[in-house]
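Input record (one chain):
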Amino acid sequence: MPDWIQKGYAEYARRLPSENALELVELPLRKRGSNSIAVQQQHEEKLLLGKLKPRDLVIALDESGEGWTSDMLAKKMASWRGSGSNVALLVGGPDGLSDVCKQAASELWSLSCATLPHALVRVLVAEQIYRAWSLNANHPYHRAG
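The corresponding structure, as predicted from the sequence alone:
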């Protein structure tokens, strides 16, 4: 990832308190070659689902998901915290998530109706999580209102 992506993600992750810590787990991309999209997705599916723990609350990022406002995300985060589970956000590779990954998720979250560069997603998600935390903590970061 470019340095600015790593710095952007790290900045928002650093701002979060330990009880809302982000852990980024990067999985290696498979060489594209002549593999079909389905083969690529199945490979990623095994890697992604293999990282999940039984009590994880799975949220998949997908263009077919629901778009959440910052307020909506804050409410969801408060609910997730009350569930006692860790939240696992699944982000697919260039071809998106497999149907199996999407079915494993409790919810599908769409960040935008526009197609976003894969690297930018991690910064955007980290910022939105920080913003939602700031709303729940009455922190002045989110000044809309």
